[in-house]
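Quick look at the format.
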Amino acid sequence: MQQLLFICSGNYYRSRFAEAVFNHAATQLGLPWRAFSRGLAIWMVDGDLSPWTEEALQQRGIDRAQTGPTRVALTEPDLQRAAKVIAVKEAEHRPMMRDQFPDWEHRIDYWTIDDLDCASSEEALPLLEARVQALAAALAAK
């Protein structure tokens, strides 16, 4: 089983949604992959899971168990065990990666999915879902 790591700031909203959507799709497609997610600044938020993420998963019929139980800070071992690593917003996460994990800054993929300060959940989560679904389809085609 290969591991896919989604990174965001708080590990509360976008990365957790991506993790759940990917794990749901991987199960449906029979992929030998499992996603997990981590945050670069988990102290920035309170609670286990964003209500926007919870609602979006419910609307899509995706079980909450497809994501971890709570926010988790990114560690070097997390990066090492992942076959693929994606940070969900380059402008936000590349500087954080450079500061916290400089050896990894150029070894991961960066997407451009905005947080709630730049886009509503109704805008951002469908874009993120489409990227995750495309990734799952590409992995299935290999």
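Next, a different chain entirely:
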Amino acid sequence: MDSLNASIGLGMIVLEAAQQAQAGKNKADIVTHITPIIQNIKSVFMVDDISYLEKSGRIGKAVSTIGGFLKLKPILSIEGGETSVKGFPMGSENAYEKVIKVMGEAIPFGSSIKVGIAHAMGADKVAAIKPKIQGKYNCVEFYETYMGGAVGATLGPGTFGIEYYEA
């Protein structure tokens, strides 16, 4: 079964499936339970250092140089297994606000959600954005972990990704 997710998003889907299995559900029931989660899970990522996108071949040197000078923090999302750009705010605080705005556009503020944050050596970024998320949503579950090596190396240190869905 394709989760259409990576990192903490995949982990949250696996946890849901495991909880269903521990409750005695059969395979068909588990698939029925996790399918809408897979279809509705949202994601948003903040890249802290745009130069890593250049190093991994995702953007050109000119964009990287200008983006680094302006301290742009690319905001990316995965929708239906495809990556899309949500914005290029300047500086971390503006980036956090953009991440929260993107979340609010996907799931209304005040909703009960399950959230996972994965980061690449960015525990300080998680500490900064976590209370902002908790202030806007009823977070039923909140997971934190490190990104895998491949994703972390591609997006660079300080990057974090948030996966979330309605509880």
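DSSP finds seven helices and six strands in the chain.

See the schema section for token definitions.
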